[in-house]
Prior knowledge:
Number of helices: 11
Radius of gyration: 30 Å
CATH superfamily of the largest domain: 2,3-Dihydroxybiphenyl 1,2-Dioxygenase, domain 1
CATH architecture of the largest domain: Roll
Shape: globular
Number of strands: 16
Largest sheet: 8 strands, mixed
Amino acid sequence: MEDVRGRFVWHQLMTRDVPGAKKYYSKLIGWKTMPWPLDPAYTVCHADVGPVAGIMEIPADAADMPSHWVQYIGTRDVDATADAAVRAGGSVLKAPSDMQGAGRYAVLKDPQGAAFAIIDPENARPESAGPPALGTFSWHELSTTDYEAAFAFYSGLFGWDAMQRMDMGPNGIYLIFGQNGVQRGGMYIPSTEMKMPPNWMPYAAVSDADKAYALATSIGSTSLVPPMDVPGGGRIACLLDPAGAPFSIHSMPSAAAAAPAVKPKAKAKAKAKPKAKAAAKPAARKKVVRKAAPKKKAAKKAAPMKKKAPARKAKAKPKAKAKARKKSGARRKK
């Protein structure tokens, strides 16, 4: 069974404009949206790697609920985790319950007031190594009133480690948390100018944060933080989607984003055992690695080409005559 404890395994947008959200995020992130077979009213967003998020209409009886993203954090015991959250000062917004095709889940609130969900998923993809794939979520950020107290709360539930406390000068400390050496997100106290209650904000991986930001603001987004550099060589931008849900985008340098593409080549090299012929032409190694195995039949078809070799030499004779004509012409001129 896949270990999901402490991982952000699902993301769900609660909004009052599902059709508008589908169009917006499809354009901005490149997701393909489709109804969930078990509940057509629920929209599932697919990246190239598979389903990554859901979009759901805010219930009619929740008139005061703003549009927002909910982060689902993995646990293999939802009931025990919910009880532990309450003992640590949190509260339960939705008691643990089962959802067919998804798993057992609950919605909680941390002591500072940020909402989040926990889930024991029926199906969970293994956590991939390397940079996050485009269209997936690369970072998770908690805006809170007390990042140290918040970290203690979540660490107790999910075993997160404080990997770094970054001094941002006038903006205070940014606490980067993670697990098993993998950074998962950060926690900070926002400036008084950002009038928002404590909340979790997801960052989606895009190819170019600057271009995505320009597109987002042209299709209804409100800018919170314009594109800026972050440690590690990435670029981020923070936005409100057209319905008011906080959302961020994150891009890495093209070299880092292309790194996962090296993996398939490694497998191809294992299949291409005979390297002797390729050694004479190192520039063609990539092609030999990929196609060396299935080219045996093609070699037989190529054999007749040798018979045409004399024809090429025969065509060279007229050139000699041409030279003779040039010489004779030269003599006449003299």
